[in-house]
């Protein structure tokens, strides 16, 4: 029985999520220091991720948090129509519905989940 061609060429989840996380952080203007707090790794690890010397490990807590961060980015990106400056401004301004500045809130797991829930609810209205 032949294996499916995509199964051999499909990228491993760790490197894919690592790259997506870095891209989302770049588009949102999130610093290495803040990203490290969001996904629970050191700033040095974020630096190694940028140099492609480290990939998040599937199933690890940083991997799971990175998946949530990318999900948050995708929801926000969809709402702002891909306009990075608007997404960056939204992330940095007080949000009365959330009760905080989203960028400050997403450095905790509960805060990240709350922001995702808020964005998903806003997206559903569109």
From TrEMBL:
<dbReference type="InterPro" id="IPR024467">
    <property type="entry name" value="Xre/MbcA/ParS-like_toxin-bd"/>
</dbReference>
<protein>
    <submittedName>
        <fullName>DUF2384 domain-containing protein</fullName>
    </submittedName>
</protein>
<dbReference type="Pfam" id="PF09722">
    <property type="entry name" value="Xre_MbcA_ParS_C"/>
</dbReference>
<dbReference type="InterPro" id="IPR046847">
    <property type="entry name" value="Xre-like_HTH"/>
</dbReference>
<dbReference type="GO" id="GO:0003677">
    <property type="term" value="F:DNA binding"/>
</dbReference>
<dbReference type="Pfam" id="PF20432">
    <property type="entry name" value="Xre-like-HTH"/>
</dbReference>
<feature type="domain" description="Antitoxin Xre/MbcA/ParS-like toxin-binding">
    <location>
        <begin position="75"/>
        <end position="123"/>
    </location>
</feature>
<feature type="domain" description="Antitoxin Xre-like helix-turn-helix">
    <location>
        <begin position="18"/>
        <end position="71"/>
    </location>
</feature>
């Amino acid at each position: 029985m032949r294996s499916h061609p995509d199964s051999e060429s499909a990228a491993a989840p760790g490197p894919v999520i690592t790259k997506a996380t870095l891209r989302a952080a770049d588009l949102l203007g999130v610093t290495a220091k803040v990203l490290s707090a969001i996904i629970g790794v050191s700033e040095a690890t974020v630096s190694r991720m940028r140099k492609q010397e480290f990939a998040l490990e599937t199933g690890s807590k940083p991997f799971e948090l990175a998946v949530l961060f990318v999900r948050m980015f995708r929801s926000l990106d969809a709402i702002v129509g891909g306009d990075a400056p608007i997404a960056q401004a939204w992330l940095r301004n007080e949000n009365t519905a959330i009760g905080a500045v989203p960028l400050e809130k997403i450095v905790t797991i509960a805060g990240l989940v709350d922001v995702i829930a808020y964005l998903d609810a806003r997206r559903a209205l569109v």
